[in-house]
Amino acid sequence: MKQILVFFFIISFVHGIIRIPLKRQKSLRKTLQEKGKLSHLWTKQGVDFLQYSDSCNSPETASEPLMNYLDVEYFGQISIGTPPQQFTVIFDTGSSNLWVPSIYCTSQACMQHNRYEPSQSSTYVSNGEPFFIQYGTGNLTGILGIDQITVQGITVQDQTFAESVSEPGNTFQDSNFDGILGLAYPNLAVDNCIPVFDNMIAQKLVELPLFGVYMNSIQVAGQVVFCSGGCQAIVDTGTSLITGPSADIEQLQNYIGLTNTDGEYGVSCSLLGQMPVVTFTINNVDYLLTPEQYMLQNLALSLKNNVHITFNPPEK
Length: 316
What we know:
This protein is 13% helix and 37% strand. With 316 residues, the protein is mainly beta. It folds into two domains: 6-27 and 72-215, Beta Barrel (Cathepsin D, subunit A, domain 1); 242-312, Cathepsin D, subunit A, domain 1, CATH 2.40.70. It is globular and about 60 Å long.
């Protein structure tokens, strides 16, 4: 297991800053590549990263669909129920619901992960409403339940969450996380479930309605590389990919000199030293990324001498 790289912060009224360590594990993309399943998944899901959408300069308000990217690499621990049942989850700013596998789920994906047992929790309350959520590369169905949720010492009472009873396909089967804890706004929540953090605020468990995600090894330097006119963007902790407007991503890919391999843009590892620095400007602060930081080494045997870029155009 690699060292802790990212921390999720909550401002607690009683204990000050609460740090939730997130552990970096092998991503789903890498797992599927090693098993030779990545190309099959792209074909099955109809994903074509060569299809581009409009420029980001449109003044209209755009909705953000729920996306389940293949490179979610950072996970944290929560517990549900009394006594507590432990789960590894993604803290995802791109969605709003909390779900974990149910003991009644017999899908292969559920069998390989920790499963919630409502009969073992004295604080569980049955809701019984059906639940369905669709991600970009997978979906699941289940029922809603109510129980207490503990996140790094902060216990939320009467939290509605989903107990998945069917997780078809390989999307969750090959993942290293049990479930997802959504941190986005309530209007993105399926079935109008109140998100965990919003319940923390309502129950006065946090002093401020504020949370943050902090990463180490960020260098400040460089210059603007693309999207110089400015872009609206979201910070999505459910993926380690950086998705951008088609025209800018295509220009960046051509500038770096990448070639299309297995549905991804890659380059020989021997060329890393010749590749440019890429700079992102966020709130007038420049963040410099070296090739070693924005390229992912491909662990698949047949492509072991290649690396792939972490920038992708959005799905059409």
